[in-house]
Structures are given as structure tokens and as C-alpha cells.
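Budget justification aside, the reviewers requested a transparent look at the raw inputs and outputs of the sequence design task funded under Objective 1. We therefore reproduce one unedited record. The lines immediately below are the C-alpha cells for a 260-residue chain.
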């Protein structure tokens, strides 16, 4: 029997067996690789979901923190509003009390204002006769306003105090203006230039400067001054009109009365 062919067949069979085993192993490796790829893909999908959920969670956390801050701000704001409401209620109570008191004060202030106007009117009549018509008209207007419902009591009182301030300012001012004066006490008025030095002296001078006079508080009439005062009064008029610098003026001034 020839043993060489048998050996060849055995070798072929071994080779075939080896190839078959390799093929099986290759198939198993491919299966493992495919399974690994599927797992990797699945892991990627899962990681994407995890990342998305993490982002959503972070967003919700930030939103939660923001809402908490808003809630805290609202608590502080509400607390402030509560304090303001308490303060407003206190203020309303005080205002109601003030309204009641204001009604009482208003009833008492109306007679006071009328008395103030009467006193001011008497004062103007006894004062030196400068701008008498305009000053008397101001008092008449205030008396009309006193009976008018157009103005509040506060506004009426303010108007009266304003006139009092104007009258007070006359005592400290130097003024020159034109006026019509009955200098001869015969009913005929002459246009003159007036010079008022506070409430100390009131003088006039005619346009041609030919006649100069001063108000005599004692007699309540105009006295004609001598020529020695002509230049002094003219200088005072120029100073009052700011045409000359301020300077010492020699003026006829009534001596002060002795206090009783």
C-alpha cells in the first residue's frame, strides 16, 4: 500500500481545517467589532442624551436661582410697600387733622386780613404823598380779592404780605419819578420831578428848575424851598436816576420828634 498519497491527503485536510478555523475566528472577530461599533454608537447616543439633559438641568438651575432672586427682591419690595402704606396712613390721619385745623384757622384769618388792609390803608393816608393813587389802588384791589372766591385764603394772605413788603421797601430806597402836584395849594396841578429819600424826605422840582419844594409832615402841605436847595435836589434826582454817582446830599429834613 502506498503511504505517500495518504500523507498528502492528511496535509490537505489539516490545511482545510486550519482555513476553516481561521474563517470562523475571522467571523467571530467581525461580529465582535460590529457589536463594539453598535455599543460605541449606542454610547454616543446615550452621551448626547446625557449632555442634553445636563444642559437642560443647568438651565433649570440657573432659572431657579434667578426666580429665587426675583422672589427675594419682591419680598424686600413688598416689605418696603408695607412701610410706605403705614406711613401714608399716618400722613392721611395728620392731613385730616390739618384740614380740620385749617378750617378753624381760615375762619380766624379772614378778619385778620381785613384788619391788615384797613391798617395799611390808614398808613398810606397818613404817609407822605408819594405814588398815593397807585398805592391806594393796590389796597382797593386787595379788598376786592378778599371777597372773591377766585383766590384761596393762602393766596390772599400772600398778596397782602407782598404789598406790606413793597411798603416796607419804600423806607430804604431812593427814587425819582414824574408826578402832578398842587404846589401852590390852589387846585392847579403842575408836572414836576419828584425826589423821595426813603420816608425821610419828599421833594419836587419843576421842569425849568425854577421852583423847588419839600413836603412838610407837620403842616401836611408843600413848602417852597430857597434857591440854596435847587442844586442839591437836582443832584439827588440825578443820583436817583443813576445819572450821577452817589454822593453826600444836603436835604431839608424835618427834625425827629421826641418819643412820648
Amino acid at each position: 500500500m502506498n503511504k505517500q498519497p495518504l500523507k498528502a491527503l492528511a496535509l490537505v485536510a489539516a490545511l482545510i481545517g486550519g482555513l476553516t478555523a481561521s474563517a470562523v475566528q475571522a467571523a467571530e472577530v467581525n461580529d465582535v467589532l460590529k457589536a463594539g461599533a453598535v455599543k460605541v454608537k449606542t454610547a454616543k447616543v446615550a452621551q448626547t442624551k446625557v449632555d442634553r439633559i445636563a444642559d437642560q438641568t443647568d438651565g433649570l438651575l440657573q432659572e431657579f436661582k434667578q426666580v429665587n432672586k426675583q422672589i427675594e427682591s419682591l419680598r424686600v419690595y413688598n416689605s418696603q410697600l408695607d412701610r410706605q402704606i403705614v406711613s401714608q396712613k399716618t400722613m392721611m390721619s395728620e392731613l385730616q387733622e390739618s384740614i380740620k385745623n385749617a378750617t378753624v384757622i381760615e375762619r380766624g384769618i379772614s378778619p385778620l386780613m381785613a384788619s391788615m388792609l384797613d391798617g395799611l390803608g390808614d398808613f398810606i393816608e397818613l404817609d407822605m404823598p408819594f405814588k398815593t393813587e397807585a398805592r391806594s389802588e393796590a389796597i382797593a384791589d386787595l379788598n376786592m380779592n378778599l371777597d372773591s372766591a377766585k383766590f384761596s385764603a393762602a393766596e390772599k394772605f400772600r398778596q397782602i404780605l407782598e404789598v406790606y413788603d413793597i411798603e416796607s421797601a419804600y423806607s430804604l430806597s431812593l427814587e425819582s419819578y414824574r408826578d402832578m402836584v398842587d404846589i401852590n395849594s390852589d387846585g392847579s396841578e403842575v408836572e414836576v420831578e419828584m425826589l423821595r429819600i426813603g420816608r425821610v424826605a419828599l421833594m419836587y422840582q419843576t421842569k425849568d428848575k425854577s421852583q423847588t419844594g419839600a413836603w412838610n409832615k407837620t403842616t401836611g402841605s408843600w413848602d417852597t424851598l430857597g434857591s440854596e436847595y435847587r442844586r442839591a435836589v437836582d443832584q439827588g434826582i440825578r443820583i436817583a436816576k443813576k445819572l450821577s454817582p452817589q454822593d453826600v446830599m444836603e436835604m431839608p429834613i424835618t427834625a425827629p420828634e421826641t418819643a412820648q
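The helical segments are 4-126, 132-146, 153-170, 230-240. The radius of gyration is 56 Å. Computational costs for records of this kind are itemized in the attached budget.
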